[in-house]
Amino acid sequence: VSGSLPADMCINLRLILVSGKTKEFLFSPNDSAADIAKHVYDNWPMDWEEEQVSSPNILRLIYQGRFLHGNVTLGALKLPLGKTTVMHLVARETLPEPNSQGQRNREKTGESNCCVIL
Fold first, then answer.
1. Which of 40, 70, 72, 94 is deepest in the core (most CB within 10 A)?
2. In this structure, is the dihedral angle defined by the CA atoms of residues 86, 83, 68 and 103, taken in order, positive or negative?
3. Residue 112: how many CA atoms within 13 Å on its side-chain side?
4. pLDDT at 109 over 60
5. Can you tell me the distance from the alpha carbon of 58 to that of 23, in angstroms, rounded to the nearest whole number?
6. Euclidean distance between CA atoms 65 and 70, whole angstroms
7. Do residues 27 and 13 touch, judged by C-beta distance below 8 A?
8. Neighbours of 31 (CB within 10 A)
9. How far is the first Cα of the chain from the last one, in angstroms, to the nearest whole number?
10. Is the per-residue pLDDT at 114 higher than 80?
């Protein structure tokens, strides 16, 4: 959470809820996904009242279609300082397993879901 860093040394996150509501927050590149979830939970916007969750532990960030694990920092994602980055914020108890996309499993077993039209 940015604290006293100047804005050009921070990352502006525009968080989007499933409902479509958005809010912008400033964070340091050292902040992790878990830090962000806790900060957002502790500073829950008033106009997000209907989406309020029971715990910061179920808030998950999605960036470029992927769930961010709690220890991933914004700096590790190489997000541009002083610019706005958009992420989705969802309530979810657990993250999907890394192999759950199915693609890797098919490659290992040689199976395919493709059809051959003759």
1. 40
2. positive
3. 4
4. no
5. 18
6. 16
7. yes
8. 21
9. 59
10. no
Its pTM stands at: 0.77
Closest by CA position to 10, among listed 23, 24, 28, 25: 28
Amino acid occupying residue 37: A
Among candidate residues 65, 67, 62, 58, the one with its CA nearest the CA of residue 88: 62
- How much is the pLDDT for 83? 92
Residue 75 has which token pair?
A: 């700096």
Contact 29, 73 (CB under 8 A): yes
Domain architecture of the chain: domains with CATH: 7-91 (3.10.20.90)
Tell me phi and psi for residue 61, to 5 degrees: -100, 140
On whether the CB atoms of residues 90 and 18 are closer than 8 A, the answer is yes
Of residues 1 and 33, which shows the higher confidence score?
A: 33
Torsion angle in degrees (nearest 10) through CA of 66, 49, 58, 96: -30
